[in-house]
Design a protein that fits this description.
Bound molecules: zinc ion
Largest sheet: none
Shape: rod-shaped
Strand content: under 5%
Radius of gyration: 49 Å
Length: about 150
């Protein structure tokens, strides 16, 4: 048996699912080959770790109750979720606030009353100028005067 054949059968050898003559051949190769023996040791350690992790895993009801307790203790409330939405780093918020600033200022000041004021208080523009005694035939400058 060469190393490739032995490495292919290591997992089966560990789980003792090989035929008797294959198990003997793998065991003889592991006794003679240091590299394959080391690979077999690593495989055994990994399989033991997987088995231990699986054995330490909490049962499904325990996990469900833990999940429910963690959710009840650490889940954010509706106010915190709303604040989290507002605290997201979205650059458009600054632009939206800048665009809304004039509207907010207008609402703070109050809308301008568009009702007309009484006539007595209103500004009266001056009456248009009237030209009296205009005669187009008379020259503007009297050239006879010297
Ligand atoms: Zn080998």
């Amino acid at each position: 048996m060469n190393c490739d054949d032995a490495l292919d059968k290591l997992t089966d050898h560990h789980h003792e699912t090989l035929a008797a003559h294959d198990a003997v051949a793998v065991a003889e190769h592991l006794g003679a080959c240091g590299g394959c023996a080391q690979a077999y040791c690593r495989l055994q350690a990994q399989l033991r770790g997987i088995a231990a992790a699986y054995a330490e895993r909490p049962s499904t009801p325990v996990r469900a109750s833990l999940r429910a307790r963690v959710k009840a203790e650490f889940a954010p409330g509706p106010v915190q979720r709303a604040l989290a939405v507002l605290r997201r780093p979205v650059p458009a918020y600054g632009v939206a606030l800048a665009a809304a600033a004039p509207l907010i200022a207008w609402l703070a000041i109050g809308p301008v009353d568009s009702a007309p004021e009484p006539a007595s208080d209103r500004f009266q523009p001056p009456a248009p100028a009237r030209i009296h005694d205009y005669d187009a035939t008379v020259p503007l400058f009297d050239r006879s005067v010297s």
